[in-house]
Design brief:
The chain is mostly helical. It folds into three domains: 21-211, Up-down Bundle (Growth Hormone, Chain: A); 276-472, Up-down Bundle (Growth Hormone, Chain: A); 540-602 and 628-660, no CATH class. It is 60% helix and 3% strand. It has 18 helices and six strands. The chain has helices at 14-56, 72-95, 97-116, 121-149, 155-184, 191-204, 220-238, 240-243, 248-268, 286-313, 318-346, 348-368, 374-399, 407-434, 443-484, 540-560, 581-592, 609-612; strands at 4-5, 500-503, 515-518, 605-606, 632-634, 648-650. The strands form three sheets. Strands 1-4 form a two-stranded antiparallel sheet. The relative contact order is 0.09. Residues 476-485 have a biased composition (Basic residues). Its main location: membrane.
């Protein structure tokens, strides 16, 4: 047999492959951010297109659209959207966010095309309802997928980018919507949604797969109760001004919807796979984020609805209203990166406080103005920045406190609060326009501005109180935590030494290292367990490859160790004469433990020219050095009375195989010519 060598080689291209993996990871994150942020921008742009289409729509199918039916254009979208948001968020967490995102994008795109080619009012309302259902599926799934794919340190910026994308969609439609409507008609306002939705749907096929936390569907009865109840409450509030706020119809639909929602929540507390994840409300900051989202809806929706009509009352043409509204949405875009940067430094609670007071300042500027002035443009910009900051703070407080398996559910719940708050705000604003509480010119619009001013200042004050309470609770928890940890206290009778500083284990993504002061002679406090969001998921194939590599390294190390045993004894056996003493010791120790079956594999690479370039056959394993690992052969049957199971060893195991009297590669104890087995091997221990 030719000369053999044993060793472990490191592949030269490992660094290059690592760089390629990093480039693939960055490109995948870029794709996730682009698709998820584009989804939010698409939904906002389509809502803007629907509002503009009502103004541009003169005739439909030869007849004018009834003026009293025009609000149904928004109701047909908002009611299914608000009704399905909590349910679709829960489905995204259970079934997979990529699946719900793709289904929502597909339904939204098809419904947008149906709205563009509709030839009747009823068909247009049905298409808008389809868009509402699609938006309800894709919006929670988009933010949930974005938060799960990005590292913990970048999730604040992810929420900021996602929220700022909504302002970008509204900005583009307000800037170019009137040009599309004047040149190509109201149907052209829905064609950008069709084109962008198709591109996002194709790009979504390249997103990473996201498995749900469970394979079962949530409670179908609870899901139906939640959807019908939320939709009924949204319908009652949106049509309350038409039905009458004191009418039995309004009261019956509203109370019935609330009772259905309460029944769904009650059923979710006992069901194994609940529709409403009630554990979210026990997470820190979730209730505050939900209230901030409702505050955003109650202020943003009325202001964005009243502002165009207010400008037209002052004599602005419809085409001149668009550039002024662009300033509002430009402020939303600016607030995205600015709020993401501030969130990492001051915390999301301060964003809620600052955004609410910025909105209040803009409303105060509109109240004090006596007519069109350049101050309005600045107030519009401040209003956009305030609304964007408030929205980002609300989503960050409410969603990042949840576990990654609950992100889509948290987003759906906060979006529901935002939509219900918006519906309530629009209903109250419509009532104030009809019956103002102030006097003077434009009394109805100024009454709406005053109500939004009071809401925003109240929300900012509550946010400031929450900041103060959270700081006090945090300090109290830290003090009580030090008192409860006995390892942090000095033991009685021991001298106090000067404490030294050690670097505690931290997340490698963290920007600042954490230090813990521990006095000498004390036990270091155990590191706090990371949350589920900081856990690293390792694929199974990587673990299998790591185990195989460790087996190869351990086998080579065993072959290279000197044949030494403990002092005063040596091991040998007649059944395995080809094994060195150390290997024989390991074999007999394994035989002594009946529950352990050892498997030893040693690779001897044949460096002869005939086999140097030979490729392995299909199915053969290869070692780190590109040579095939010897196949495993079984020893003879276990003799009667043997202490344990016989080992399965390679046919070429051991460097001293020639000493057994057979040829290298044969099983010890087996005849190489006739194939007859020898007598049963006898195990014995030889003491020095």
């Amino acid at each position: 047999m030719g000369h053999t060598t044993t060793g472990v080689a490191v592949l030269a291209g490992e660094a290059a492959r690592a760089r390629r993996r990093g480039a693939v990871s960055r490109s995948r994150i870029a794709l996730v951010v682009a698709v998820c942020a584009g989804t939010m921008a698409l939904a906002t742009a389509d809502s803007t297109a629907a509002v503009l289409s009502l103004s541009a729509m003169a005739e439909l199918a030869g007849a004018r659209v009834p003026a009293d039916q025009a609000p149904w254009m928004g109701v047909a979208y908002l009611v299914p959207f608000a009704a399905l948001l909590p349910a679709t968020g829960r489905l995204a967490d259970l079934l997979g966010r990529r699946l719900l995102l793709g289904l929502g994008l597909g339904l939204f795109t098809v419904s947008a095309f149906a709205a563009a080619v509709s030839d009747s009012w009823i068909f247009l309302l049905a298409a808008r309802a389809g868009q509402g259902i699609g938006s309800a599926a894709m919006i929670p799934a988009s933010l949930g997928l974005l938060l799960c794919e990005l590292p913990t340190a970048r999730r604040h910026m992810a929420v900021a980018i996602w929220s700022g994308a909504s302002g970008l969609g509204g900005l583009l439609l307000h800037a170019g919507g009137w040009w599309l409507a004047d040149g190509y008609g109201w149907r052209a306002l829905f064609m950008p949604s069709v084109a962008v939705g198709t591109v996002l749907l194709l790009a979504a096929t390249g997103l990473p797969r996201s498995r749900g936390s469970r394979g079962r569907l949530p409670d179908p009865l609870g899901l139906s109760l939640l959807a019908v109840g939320t939709g009924a409450a949204a319908l009652a509030v949106s049509r309350g001004a038409v039905w009458g706020w004191r009418s039995p119809l309004f009261a019956g639909v509203l109370v019935g919807g609330l009772l259905l929602v309460a029944a769904s929540v009650r059923r979710s507390r006992r069901h194994p796979v609940p529709t409403v994840d009630t554990s979210l409300w026990r997470r820190e900051g979730f209730a505050l984020g939900w209230a901030a989202s409702a505050l955003y809806g109650m202020t943003a929706f009325p202001l964005l609805m009243v502002a165009p009509a207010y400008l037209r009352e002052w004599g602005f043409a419809a085409a001149q209203v668009g550039p002024i509204m662009v300033a509002v949405f430009a402020g939303l875009v600016i607030a995205g990166p600015m709020a993401g940067w501030m969130c990492r430094r001051v915390g999301p609670h301060w964003l809620v406080y600052g955004g609410a007071f910025l909105v209040g300042g803009a409303c105060l500027a509109l109240l004090t103005g006596s007519g069109p002035s350049p101050l309005w443009l600045a107030a519009a910009e401040v209003l956009g920045v305030g609304l964007g900051t408030l929205a980002i703070g609300a989503f960050t407080v409410g969603t990042l406190g949840a576990y990654p398996s609950q992100y889509a559910s948290a987003v759906g719940t906060h979006m529901t609060a935002q939509q219900l708050g918006g519906i309530v705000g629009v209903a109250v604003a419509s009532a104030l326009v009809e019956t103002p509480i102030l006097s003077g010119p434009m009394a109805g619009y100024t009454s709406v501005f005053l109500a939004c001013l009071i809401l925003s200042l109240s929300g900012g004050a509550f946010a400031l109180i929450a900041i103060a309470l959270s700081g006090r609770v945090g300090r109290r928890a830290r003090h009580s935590g030090r008192a409860r940890h006995p390892s942090r206290e000095l033991r009685p009778g021991r001298p106090t030494r000067k404490p030294f500083s050690i670097r505690a284990p931290r997340n490698p993504r963290s920007a600042r290292p954490a230090r813990v002061a521990v006095p000498l002679g004390q036990a270091v406090p155990p590191p706090q367990a990371h949350e589920q969001s900081d856990m690293v998921a390792i694929p199974r194939r990587v673990l299998i490859g790591l185990r195989a590599a460790l087996v190869d390294v351990a086998t080579v190390a065993d072959a290279l160790l000197p044949p030494e045993g403990q002092a005063g004894e040596r091991f040998g056996c007649e059944c395995h004469p080809g094994l060195d003493p150390l290997a024989a010791r390991l074999v007999h120790e394994a035989l002594a433990h009946e529950s352990l079956t050892a498997q030893a594999e040693v690779f001897h690479e044949d460096t002869s020219p005939e086999t140097a370039t030979a490729l392995p056959r299909r199915g053969e394993r290869r070692s780190i050095e590109t040579g095939p690992i010897p196949k495993i052969v079984d020893l003879p049957e276990k003799p009667a009375g043997a202490p344990g199971p016989l080992l399965r060893v390679p046919s070429s195991f051991g460097a001293g195989g020639e000493s057994s009297g057979g040829t290298p590669g044969e099983t010890p104890g087996a005849s190489g010519a006739s194939g007859e087995t020898s007598s049963a091997p006898q195990h014995r221990r030889i003491d020095a």
